[in-house]
Design brief:
alpha/beta; DNA-binding; three-stranded antiparallel beta sheet
């Protein structure tokens, strides 16, 4: 197996499992750990993976995106903590946009049910999870449903958002970096996110630390568009401070 074939195999493993470890991958491919580290360096420079201590995560882009079933099994404990912290930022908001994705779905399930609240979402899963809450009015955006994420996209969804003024938007992304802002693989998804951001008075970003430093195909927001960023402690305090210098408060949980 030459270097190119080995790197393709490593990338396939990362995309299938959501992560690769240097030591186990070295054993599986019968090479030295140093070889795997060099391969990961090549893949990171190509923008295909994001290296972490002892391994790497795949970067989502135009050619690769995880679906909702995968997102529901990766980093679940971290995502629950992020959602629990983010919901504390609700304040007195009466209208809320909840983005597609598993972490926003977790947040929606934590929204208070003791006062009236209107939730706007493109996510079928989120709408189904909270529609029985007696004090919550759910507005589901129309449009084409993406099978990968069970969320609506397209001109209908954007046209509906255009008519709203929303108090608070909880948004996610496939990548966030200080240089390139927030990105996602699909242009139609980026359109919905950008429109939700534009019609919302307050914006909160929620994302696992593996999203940081990564970039995808379509930019829809800048870091300074958000009042707060909520992530886990996998993001170092030094890096969190760098993001905070751009405007948002950074919550690490």
């Amino acid at each position: 197996m030459n270097a190119e074939e080995r790197q393709s195999r490593i990338l396939a493993l990362a995309r299938h499992h959501g992560r690769v470890e240097v030591t186990t991958t070295a054993v599986g491919l019968a090479v030295a750990p140093e070889t795997i580290r060099r391969d990961l360096g090549v893949l990171e420079r190509r923008g295909l993976i994001r290296r972490t201590y002892g391994g790497a995560y795949p970067v989502e882009g135009a050619g690769f995106e995880t679906g909702l079933p995968e997102r529901e099994t990766l980093h679940v404990k971290d995502k629950r903590r992020i959602a629990s912290e983010a919901v504390k930022l609700l304040g007195d908001a009466e209208t809320v946009f909840v983005d597609e994705g598993y972490t926003p779905q977790l947040l929606a399930s934590l929204l208070p049910d003791h006062r009236p609240l209107t939730v706007v979402t493109a996510s079928l899963s989120t709408a189904a999870a909270i529609v029985d809450s007696p004090q919550v009015t759910v507005l589901l955006l129309g449009g084409r449903v993406r099978a990968r994420t069970l969320a609506t996209v397209g001109s209908w969804a954007c046209a509906m958002l255009e008519r709203f003024v929303i108090d608070l938007a909880f948004l996610g992304s496939n990548g966030i970096s200080r240089e390139l802002g927030l990105t996602t693989p699909d242009p139609v998804v980026a359109d919905v996110k950008a429109k939700a951001l534009a019609v919302s008075r307050r914006r909160v970003f929620m994302g696992h630390h593996s999203k940081f430093g990564a970039s995808s195909f379509c930019r829809f927001a800048g870091v300074d568009d958000f009042e707060a960023i909520v992530t886990d402690t996998g993001l170092s305090s030094a890096e969190a401070h760098r993001y905070s210098l751009m405007g948002p408060r950074v919550h690490r949980v």
